[in-house]
UniProtKB/TrEMBL annotation:
It comes from the Bacteria. It comes from Solitalea canadensis (strain ATCC 29591 / DSM 3403 / JCM 21819 / LMG 8368 / NBRC 15130 / NCIMB 12057 / USAM 9D). The keyword Membrane does not apply. Residues 1-19 form the signal peptide. Gene3D superfamilies: Oxidoreductase, molybdopterin-binding domain. Keywords: Signal. This is Sulfite oxidase-like oxidoreductase. Transmembrane segments: none annotated. Pfam families: Oxidored_molyb (PF00174). Residues 28-163 form the Oxidoreductase molybdopterin-binding domain. InterPro entries: OxRdtase_Mopterin-bd_dom, OxRdtase_Mopterin-bd_sf.
């Protein structure tokens, strides 16, 4: 009895703080948009959740389709004052987006690829999958590209988006 009591206490100490940490980690986590922007921004999951969300479907490796919801990259970039649409011309076409993840993984998109006036295929920074916040191995922020055949640019656990000039 005594042993199982200690075991129970140990379980509470081990499991409960972990569960709390998981939730607060998602709450505290943020994504930054910086570099060639008017105003750098740092957004939390709840900030993005208040914005207009767009849905993109993607099949997983077992061919099961999932509905991801998130903010379109173009909208996200406009919160930082990045020039898009008619203003995206001339030297601005030399800009690219460097997407960085917590494991050091990096991928880039040309800025024009994220502008719906150039490319109608949507790219979102997803915060939800099938209606729930993303699991920690994917999120809290996950780039999802509509209809892209290869999975490698769907960056999981995004921490920052940097707007840069190719020179
Ligand atoms: N952060 C991060 N995202 C990543 C990767 C990675 O190594 N780190 N690998 C990419 C590659 S190469 C693929 S094929 C897909 C795999 O996603 P899946 O495990 O959800 O199928 O994730 C992409 N996103
Ligand atoms: Mo991959």
């Amino acid at each position: 009895m005594r042993i199982s009591y200690y075991f129970f206490l140990l379980m509470l100490l081990e499991v409960f703080p972990l569960a709390v940490d998981g939730q607060s980690l998602t709450k505290q986590a943020s994504v930054t948009i910086s570099g060639e922007v008017k105003t750098p921004v740092e957004l939390k999951v709840e900030d993005i959740n208040k914005m207009e969300l767009t849905q993109v479907t993607k099949k997983d490796k077992n061919q099961v389709e999932h509905i991801y919801s998130g903010i379109e990259l173009s909208q996200l970039l406009s919160t930082a004052g990045v020039a898009l649409g008619k203003e995206l011309r001339g030297e601005h076409l030399l800009k690219y987006l460097l997407i960085e993840a917590s494991d050091g993984y990096q991928v880039l998109f040309s800025l024009a690829e994220a502008d719906p006036e150039f490319v109608s295929r949507k790219i979102i920074l997803a915060i939800k999958k099938d209606g729930s916040l993303l699991p920690s191995d994917e999120g809290p922020f996950h780039i999802i590209i509509d209809g892209e055949g290869r999975g490698s640019r769907n960056v999981r656990q995004v921490t920052s988006i940097k707007v840069k000039f190719a020179d």
